[in-house]
Design brief:
- The structure is a single chain.
- The chain has a single domain, classed as YVTN repeat-like/Quinoprotein amine dehydrogenase (Methylamine Dehydrogenase, Chain H, 7 Propeller).
- The relative contact order is 0.15.
- It is mostly beta strands.
- Strands 8, 9, 10, 11 and 12 form a five-stranded antiparallel sheet that branches.
- It is 1% helix and 49% strand.
- It starts with a helix and ends with a strand.
Length: 373
């Protein structure tokens, strides 16, 4: 695979179009959603023939075993989304986007599997990311002009559109990558790869997103991000896929305005795209799509960053890592690799280092999104 085609898994340049991860997946029903350790890992088949959530048991040692597929009631796109947050879990619920049918699905996580509760229009075209805080859900649509649209989670997880919640991005064709609530759930953030902007929206009393405020990214091609305690924001920068030039920046909000804390601290790797932060906000990790690696950083009290490893390689991954997730209590880190169609697991050690946890587990060709509990 050429470097340019590999990097399209992560980076959407201003002149680029959809990312290329081809393939269909079967959508057979599945069995138990939880293993003996009480945890699971989830990804999406993203099949145009019918999207489904692929479920894996998480064992006590962090290894994974397949536990079946559960149809979303929508369809996938059959190609990479260039986003983070296509599937998320929170408080016994799972939410997933259906980019092929412009919809979003809500599940209850049960001991005997996933129960599909509702599938609703996403409020736009080609949804690629979803976020939840309490009873509020917002979806990022990157088709057409692009927008974010809100919902409330009603009884048992039914999705009710939130009137007046749809908000535009900074413009059309901005290449959005992720939408997420902040640590407290009172602000929404969106990264724009093509404009090098970070959007934020204050969430009003009734859950309605307020006026858009934009801020320049410290580095080029801001992509995935995650929040830590004290609403510190950590954003990957793919730098257009330039070899060994990707970075991570940290920010804080001052009176609603985004202020850099650490600017573009390099991973020394290529195409850093997906980001997670441990529950205790001591460490943050970014996957490097072009280098098949994970870069870890130590987080200071003020949100400042320090590389865990001088060479930027905290762990090696499968080919073309395209997403990352942490299990409950941040015991294990998982990464989804599209080049090898696998999920690999790592135990998060006290010093932030990563130790392989079991053998890589196979995924459907074309899988996107990753969530863990």
């Amino acid at each position: 695979m050429s470097r340019s085609s590999l990097l399209r898994k992560c980076v959407a340049l201003p002149a680029a179009v959809a990312l290329a991860i081809a393939g269909l997946a079967t959508t057979a029903s599945g069995a138990l959603a939880h293993g003996s350790a009480g945890g699971a890992v989830y990804t999406l088949t993203n099949s145009p023939a019918g999207n489904a959530v692929e479920v894996f048991h998480r064992q006590r040692d962090g290894s994974l075993t397949p536990a079946g597929e559960f149809a979303t009631g929508g369809t996938g796109s059959g190609s990479g989304l260039g986003s983070q947050g296509a599937v998320v879990v929170d408080d016994g619920r799972l939410l997933a986007v259906n980019p092929g049918s412009d919809s979003v699905s809500s599940f209850r996580i049960r001991r005997d599997g996933l129960e599909l509760v509702d599938t609703e229009s996403s409020g736009g075209a080609h949804p690629i990311s979803v976020t939840v805080a309490g009873r509020l859900v917002y979806v990022l649509n990157d088709g057409g002009a692009g927008n974010i649209t809100g919902f409330t989670l009603a009884h048992r997880g039914r999705l009710d559109p939130l009137p007046g919640s749809t908000r535009p991005l900074s413009g059309s064709g901005v290449g959005p990558a992720e939408v997420s609530f902040d640590y407290d759930g009172d602000r929404l953030v969106v990264t724009e790869k093509n404009t090098n902007l970070i959007d934020s929206y204050k969430v009003g009393r009734h859950g309605v997103a307020q006026q858009l405020v934009t801020a320049p990214s410290s580095g080029a091609t801001p992509f995935g991000f995650a929040f830590g305690k004290r609403d510190r924001l950590f954003v990957s920068e793919a730098f257009g896929g330039a070899v060994d030039q990707s970075a991570l920046s940290s920010y804080r909000f001052d009176d609603g305005l985004l202020t850099p804390v650490t600017r573009s601290l390099g991973t020394t790797e290529t195409a850093a795209c997906w980001v997670v932060v441990t529950d205790d906000s001591r460490y943050t990790y970014a996957t490097n799509t072009g280098s098949a690696s994970v870069t870890g950083y130590r987080i200071g009290r003020g949100g400042d960053l320090t590389l865990l490893n001088p060479d930027g390689k905290t762990a090696n991954t499968g080919a073309t890592p395209i997403d990352v997730a942490l299990s409950s209590h941040s015991r294990f880190l998982y990464e989804l690799s599209s080049g090898s169609d696998t999920i690999s697991g790592f135990r998060v050690e006290k010093d932030g280092s990563l130790t392989p946890a079991g053998a890589p587990t196979g995924t459907p060709d074309g899988a996107v999104g990753l969530a863990a509990e």
